[in-house]
Amino acid sequence: MRVAIVGFGTAGTARLSGYRSVEDAEVVAVVEPSEERRGAAARLLTGGRVSATLDELFASGGPDAVDVVDVCSPPVFHVPLTRAALAAGRHVICEKPVAVRAEEARGLAREAAARGRLLFPSHNYGTSPVMRTLREAVADRRIGRLESATFRVLRDRHARGVPGYAPDWRRSRALAGGGILLDHGTHCVYMALRLFGRAPEKLSCTVVRPGGDPDAVDEAARLRLEFGDARCDIELSWTGGERSNHYGVAGSAGLVRIDDGRVTVRSADGVRRYAMVSPSKDQTHLEWFPPMYADFRRILADPALWHEPAREIVDTARVVETAYLSAAEDGRVMPL
Question: Which residue ranges does the record assign to the GFO/IDH/MocA-like oxidoreductase domain (predicted)?
Fold first, then answer.
């Protein structure tokens, strides 16, 4: 599988290392608009092609030079880059959020289906040890019927990018498209979709912007997703004064909570506590890439499954877009 990485910042650099850890993939090209970052890519990519644009890569590489385009750019470029890669007949892996707006997500899903190509989201939290623990607790019914989930992600600052290309792009609406709700919030939304097995029926959301500036990106958010007889509460902050992660699920017969790698399970069998490998403090979470890539290969091998990642992309965009609409109306409850 020949891969082109588009965007050689933090995510793209980590992805190059990630592909080296799997047997059936080879990074043969990097596309990066920054001259400084192209230089970094050229030093690390042995024997591959480094280009400034996708058009330049496709023009110089021949029709079969690349099988998969892996989009690792800031969010506002995800949709046009994905469209261009699909139009060129490539499968696409795209960083989250694949699309900021639901209609854009639907358009990409239609384009991928029409061209017979797989569009796959880089939803790496879905293969994290935390998510595996929560999903297993829900699937094996050890906590009974799932009634609620709680995610709380606190940071003392936003994650920074690399020198050479807008290190603080996450706080730029022009590059990020949104703030923490679009960034960490996207992870939490698709995790909730997977745990509950469906999209929420309605939601409410409030956000905090620095100084109350309506033009600034959000740096804190509270989001409630309502699934009829169950709910998920999400709290996010870039100004929390600490780095901490809390994830929990509660059901009719018990609960599981995970606090920075410390797991507590309450069920009919009693209370059990143990330590899992604490979430990596490296924002790339490189150790989660191999299982995510294995999911990509599994789905790629069976086109009958291609609708599953497409649906998750669309539903995630629907939720996040509606959450911003709710926040604009001071947290009004909105149907999805």
Answer: 131-256
Decide: 325 and 178 in contact? Cβ < 8 Å. Answer: no
Give the integer Cα–Cα distance in Å for 332 and 209.
18
Q: Which fold has domain 126-335?
A: Dihydrodipicolinate Reductase; domain 2 (3.30.360)
The rounded distance, in Å, linking the Cα atoms of 182 and 96 is 9
Domain ranges of the chain: 2-124, 126-335
Query: How many Cβ atoms sit within 10 Å of the Cβ of residue 171?
Result: 19
Q: Which residues pair with 120 in a beta bridge?
A: 93
Q: What top-level class would CATH report for the domain 2-124? A: alpha beta
In the chain, count H helices and then E strands.
10, 15
CA–CA dist 246, 149 (Å, integer):
11
Hey, what are 296's tokens? 């990509």
Classify the phi-psi angles of 41: left when phi > 0, otherwise alpha if psi is within -120 to 50, otherwise beta: alpha
3-state DSSP percent of the chain in helix, strand and coil, to 5: 40, 25, 35
Give the integer Cα–Cα distance in Å for 185 and 191.
10
2-124 against 126-335: fold identical: no
Tens of pLDDT along 89-118? 999 999 999 999 999 999 999 999 999 999
DSSP H helices, the chain, are 10-19, 35-44, 54-61, 78-87, 102-115, 129-139, 173-176, 184-196, 289-300, 307-328
pLDDT in tens, 201-257: 999 999 999 998 988 999 999 999 999 999 999 999 999 999 999 999 999 999 999
- Residue 19 phi/psi, 5-degree rounding, is -65, -30
The answer to whether 256 and 248 have CB atoms below 8 angstroms apart is yes
